[in-house]
Write a structure and sequence with these properties.
transmembrane; mainly alpha; single chain; Brnchd-chn_aa_trnsp_AzlD; two-stranded antiparallel ribbon; 2 strands; membrane; 101 residues; 5 helices
Length: 101
């Protein structure tokens, strides 16, 4: 068994343990208003981090290219309260035009 499979089995065991422990937490801690606010913000933080990493890095190195311009246009469209379709299409068109330049 090589190191890759040891890593896969180890992380699987850790994930199972965390999920099991999560089910054994008393309900009074899960219904705490502070905990509920934190739980609603976790997906937003994770998605923002994913967008940031995918936008400005490539193969572990910092890269500033057309993707950053597309995200900037999307942020501008979102700040102007544009519909989701307009946000995605404007970001895609901006990235494609800058890529072709």
């Amino acid at each position: 068994m090589n190191a890759l499979w040891i890593g896969v089995l180890g992380t699987s065991a850790i994930a199972f343990t965390l999920k099991y422990l999560g089910h054994s937490i008393p309900e009074k801690y899960l219904t705490n208003p502070r905990m509920l606010r934190i739980n609603t913000l976790i997906p937003i933080a994770l998605l923002s981090a994913l967008v940031g990493v995918q936008t400005i890095t490539e193969k572990g190195k910092w890269v500033i290219d057309q993707r950053l311009a597309g995200v900037a246009v999307a942020l501008i469209a979102l700040s102007l309260k544009a519909p989701y379709f307009v946000v995605v299409i404007s970001a895609a068109i901006t990235s494609a035009v800058i890529y072709r330049i």
